[in-house]
Amino acid sequence: MNPELEIRRLLDLMPASGRMLTKIVSKPEQSQVITSQFPLPWMRVRPILINFDLWSELKRPQRDMLLLHQVSRLTAIRWFKPDLYQGLTLAGAIWTGVEFFQGDVMGTLVAGMLAGLAGNQIWRSNNTARQELAADDTALEVAQRRGYEAPEAARHLITAIEAVAQIERRSLTFMELVRCHNLRAIAGLSPVGAPQSMKRE
To answer: What residues contact 182, with CB distance under 8 A and at least 6 apart?
Structure first.
């Protein structure tokens, strides 16, 4: 597989928001097929790292769905939106700076802890089953605009998740099992999807 040609093809597959916010990077040394790190607030571009040697072992529709899920997950993460934790993080960061420049060690420590706790809450809220299931739903919506039927796209994503675990020589994670269970309902392979409590958590 030629990574440059595949990257060009994947960029065409992405929604416009994905092309603006993410960047596909070839990472032949990584053991994962596709991965990304949680984007920090100052990151203008959110890299998606792909091992194209392993990537080539997947069928094209599987690759499409994995990429769309990854893009959907990354573009859904919002650091700067008006809510309590974003406000506390910003206030904590400003307070930390003020206390630091005033030389108040205790004040700097307390403000830093406030900013850290609020930032950790933001990270946790973006790493839930609800976020993963929502990213699957968004990926399926984009796939339909790219010519896939929803049940067909869901089946491709299920087989992609299972194939990646096999390529990486590992078992499916709990989150992947939940996603597959929910996708089976969308694909018409199971009467019951993920519990509503997980979709609301």
So the answer is: 133, 136, 193, 194
